[in-house]
TrEMBL record:
InterPro entries recorded: ATPase_NBD, Carb_kinase_FGGY, Carb_kinase_FGGY_CS, FGGY_C, FGGY_Carb_Kinase, FGGY_N
Coiled coil: none
PROSITE patterns the record matches: FGGY_KINASES_1 (PS00933), FGGY_KINASES_2 (PS00445)
Entry's transmembrane regions: none
Native source organism of the sequence: Streptomyces albireticuli
GO molecular function term, any single one: kinase activity
UniProt domain Carbohydrate kinase FGGY C-terminal: residue ranges: 239-422
Keyword list, A-Z: Carbohydrate metabolism, Kinase, Transferase, Xylose metabolism
Classification of source organism: Bacteria, Bacillati, Actinomycetota, Actinomycetes, Kitasatosporales
Residue ranges of every copy of the Carbohydrate kinase FGGY N-terminal domain listed in the record: 4-221
One protein family per Pfam: FGGY_N
BP term (GO), one: D-xylose metabolic process
Family: Belongs to the FGGY kinase family.
Full protein name: Sugar kinase
Length: 474
């Protein structure tokens, strides 16, 4: 069918993959860094894109898909000129604004019912409230609001009158409902004090348009949705991301409304849904324990494997930064079960891995309790390569664990979307069925006969959690 490209503009860099539209085979790749700040110059993203595409990388490409960092906000005046530098998702100044908005609508349950999520500092809706309160002149000049992927698509198309987004990125704003598939302008007004122009939300295979040179640009999407599409996850699959904090999402056939706000109801890039549960503590638990024991992550993994399941009764509740799941924002971590025989480095190391993974298993159980099927778990992040993680995770998650080979999955997802839009345009693909690219290679780990062992470790952990924080999940 041709050649397509996917570009991913993350917080740190632009990555481009050029793929065969039929097979998904990667033909060429490009990379360029860009500044990492809490406020960004979008022109730097364009310069990075140009550097990544240098040397004829895009020669012969017929369609491009765009993935970009989520929850950034670009404010435009009536003439389409940036009002101020972009506010990015990692900007923590908006936390009071998020709390303020939560109360303004009547609490967490009201927001969950309205848009499937409770305001967080990263969301665009919180940034709008912060702008109104802290930069009223900039707020007054703001006529339109975009996210990074929306702005990049608009630039590639030559800044047309029509601006677009997709349902995946729209669902991360805090003022678009994945359940109804529509914007909530009233929530924009609640945050900013007045209405602004919002982009048109495109269907998954619908193109955003064509460049002046005739190159098709697909709808694009946010990084999480693009990575899921690049991985090829489907119903029955969950993805656990191991960063300093953690996230768990799964593919589901409908949006979930969670009155507690524990589940954030995102849409995906295919027409399905991605309910997400976040934890505040993941690899930071391992790093903290490694520092305490005078080693690194590899050494901590080696130590943990010298211990046995249950760590001789040692249990670490990994709430080092407070916790979102369960909702314990002001708590601290707990080390329980100290006995003379358990006070050894290898048992503390094992307790750290089990505590981190039990916390993520709790997040998985939040989704399972709402009818989300989890038969296979994709484990992402550098820590997924640690032998102790690979040994312990299948037991505690109660499912096959897949550790994919490192790849630019967000860029691959963007390229797959471009191939889909191109195929629909040519009449070779249905708008309801994306191209069937092969799943990425990876290692699979089965719980096997160790499932009862994992259940016993989970029970030990749950008992300590309930004794320390009674009713935390009620």
């Amino acid at each position: 069918m041709g050649i397509v490209a996917g570009l991913d503009s993350s917080t740190e860099s632009t990555r481009i993959v050029v793929c065969d539209a039929d097979t998904g085979a990667v033909l060429r790749q490009g990379y360029a860094p860009h500044p990492t700040t809490s406020e960004g110059d979008p022109q730097a993203w364009l310069m990075s894109l140009g550097e990544a595409a240098a040397g004829g990388l895009l020669e012969g490409v017929q369609a491009i898909g765009v993935s970009a960092q989520q929850q950034g906000m670009l404010t435009l005046d009536a003439g389409g000129v940036l009002v101020r530098p972009a506010l990015l998702g990692n900007d923590k100044r908006m936390q009071p604004s998020a709390a303020d908005l939560t109360d303004a609508l009547g609490g967490r349950a009201a927001w969950a019912q309205a848009v499937g999520s409770v305001p967080q500092a990263g969301q665009t809706v919180a940034k709008l409230r912060w702008l109104a309160r802290n930069e009223p002149e900039a707020a007054r000049r703001t006529a339109a609001v975009l996210q990074p992927h929306d702005w990049l698509v608009w630039q590639l198309l030559g800044r047309p009158a029509r601006r677009t987004t997709d349902r995946g990125d729209a669902s991360a704003t805090g003022y678009w409902s994945a359940a109804t598939g529509s914007w909530r302008p009233d929530l924009v007004e609640l945050a900013l004090g007045r209405q602004v122009t919002l982009p048109d939300v495109l269907a998954p295979a619908e193109p955003a348009g064509h460049t002046p040179e005739g190159l098709l640009i697909s709808a694009g999407t946010g990084e999480t949705m693009a990575a899921a599409f690049g991985l090829g996850v489907g119903l029955g699959d969950a993805v656990v991301s191991l960063g300093a904090s953690g996230s768990v999402f799964a593919v589901h056939h409908e949006a979930l409304v969670d009155p507690t706000g524990t589940i954030t109801s995102f849409a995906d890039a295919t027409g399905m849904h991605l309910p997400v549960v976040h934890t505040l503590n993941a690899v930071r638990v391992l790093r903290g324990t490694a520092e305490l024991l005078g080693t690194d992550l590899a050494g901590l993994s080696e130590l943990a494997l010298r211990s046995s399941p249950g760590a001789y009764g040692l249990v670490l509740l990994p709430y080092l930064e407070g916790e979102r799941t369960p909702h314990l924002p002001h708590t601290a971590g707990t080390l329980a079960g100290l006995r003379r025989e358990s006070m050894k480095p290898e048992h503390l190391a094992r307790a750290a891995f089990e505590g981190m993974l039990c916390g993520l298993a709790d997040a998985l159980d939040v989704l399972r309790s709402r009818g989300v099927q989890v038969r296979r778990v994709f484990l992402l992040g550098a820590a997924a390569e640690l032998p102790a993680v690979q040994a312990v995770a299948p037991q505690l998650f109660g499912a096959q664990v897949v550790v994919p080979q490192p790849a630019d999955y967000a860029a691959l997802g963007a390229a797959r979307q471009a191939a889909w839009a191109l195929g629909v345009q040519h009449g070779t693909l249905s708008p309801r069925q994306p191209p069937l690219w092969p799943a990425g290679a990876g290692q699979a780990f089965e719980p096997g006969e160790d499932m009862p062992v994992g259940q016993a470790v989970r029970q030990q952990y749950t008992t300590v959690r309930e004794q320390t924080h009674p009713g935390a999940f009620q």
